[in-house]
Amino acid sequence: MENIEKYNEAFVHVFGAQVGDLNDNYGKDTVEEWDSVHQLSLVAELEEAFDIMLDPEDIMEMTSYAKGKELLKKYEIEL
Predict the structure, then answer these.
(1) How far apart are CA 43 and CA 11, in angstroms?
(2) Would you say the C-alpha torsion 20, 25, 29, 35 has a positive or negative sign?
(3) What angle do CA 53, 5, 37 make, to 5 degrees?
(4) What does each C-alpha distance from 55 to 12, 13, 22, 71, 72 come to in angstroms?
(5) What is the tens place of the pLDDT at every residue in 6-64?
(6) pTM over cut 0.70
(7) What Å distances lie between residue 51 and 45, 46, 73, 79, CA to CA?
């Protein structure tokens, strides 16, 4: 599975999203279900999928599809 597929799968699993709905506007301001519990679940999914441990500051900043892609680059994960 490619990295972008793993990334998308995390959003599908946590939010019940359709892959076609995922874009840079997908985030806490546009997704009704996005709350702190879902955000932490997303972080856990991503940490497991990519075998990383996000810094607490990065966990707080994981507020959108676009921001997540940006944060993963910090951990040298190319999507």
Answers:
(1) 10
(2) positive
(3) 50
(4) 23, 22, 24, 10, 11
(5) 999 999 999 999 999 999 999 999 999 999 999 999 999 999 999 999 999 999 999 99
(6) yes
(7) 10, 8, 14, 15
